[in-house]
Write a structure and sequence with these properties.
Strand content: 15-25%
Oligomer: single chain
Radius of gyration: 18 Å
Order of helices and strands: HEHEEHEHEHEH
Bound molecules: guanosine-3'-monophosphate-5'-diphosphate, magnesium ion
Structural class: alpha/beta
């Protein structure tokens, strides 16, 4: 058949909530500001509670992906609020400061963030864990030290496999290193995971293909639980 309808594929427009977590000062807000707004600025106010930013990506003629990125303040670590913040997330980044990676505490904290995510969130309408990517931020501070970079790479490859991270990237909010690649990889992982679930269920279930109750046009949120009045924008 060769009629107009066959050539006009309907546009798909998916909205995904994703989490940016990690301790204070590792550069979460800076990553989001650079990736979403193209700005790196020092001395911005510390994040309090949670902030949001929206990145709209046109992946091809018929596919729009909106990433609603939740910037969760590091001081929220493991308190009861994280369960509320994580609700309905499709994927997460855990961020640490690459310049202090050889401090033994750094990777212990990363493990705790990963366990916190695994224990509190699964893909909407599913028991599947969400994909989590590890970001070694501030890589600009060590990227000229070849020995350090080699050791970091070896250790991270092993660490990700043993602790269930889908991937890791050395990134820099300051120098805009690997930010696009990390986000594109996260979107790929979401699509792959949803495909697997849909195949297992034997359906193309749009209900689990995207967040339905988040505002698509702006970076304001209908949280749909006991925080209705929490409406804010990212990174002022
Ligand atoms: P947070 O949101 O995780 O708490 P911020 O972290 O984004 O507020 O960043 C904390 C500090 O790290 C900031 O420094 C910021 O400029 C710096 N930073 C963030 N990303 C990078 C990076 O990629 N490279 C380097 N060199 N520094 C980075 P200040 O001095 O403003 O507190
Ligand atoms: Mg912050």
């Amino acid at each position: 058949m060769n009629n107009l309808m066959d050539n006009t594929e309907s546009e798909k427009d998916f909205l995904y909530k994703i989490l940016m977590v990690g301790d204070a000062n590792v550069g979460k807000t800076s990553i989001i500001k650079k990736y979403v707004h193209g700005i790196f600025s020092q001395n911005h106010k510390p994040t309090i509670g949670v902030d949001f930013a929206l990145k709209v990506l046109k992946l091809d003629n018929n596919l729009i992906v909106r990433l609603q990125i939740w910037d969760i303040a590091g001081q929220e670590r493991f308190n009861t609020m994280t369960r509320v913040y994580y609700k309905e997330a499709f994927a997460a980044f855990v961020v640490f400061d690459a310049s202090s990676w050889d401090n033994p505490n750094t990777l212990n904290i990363v493990k705790k963030w990963k366990s916190d995510i695994d224990s509190k969130v699964s893909l909407p309408n599913s028991d599947e864990s969400i994909p989590v990517i590890l970001l070694a931020n501030k890589i600009d501070l060590i990227s000229t030290d070849n020995d350090k970079m080699k050791k970091l790479t070896e250790e991270m490859n092993q660490f990700c496999t043993s602790h269930g991270f889908s991937a890791w990237f050395g990134v820099s909010a300051k120098e805009n290193i690997n930010l696009n690649l990390a986000h594109e990889t996260l979107i790929d992982l979401i699509f792959k995971k949803l495909d697997q679930i849909n195949q297992l269920k034997g359906v193309d279930n749009d209900n689990i293909n995207a967040n339905k109750n988040l505002d698509k046009q702006t970076n304001t949120i209908d949280l749909n639980f006991n925080m209705e009045n929490l409406k804010t924008t990212c990174c002022d």
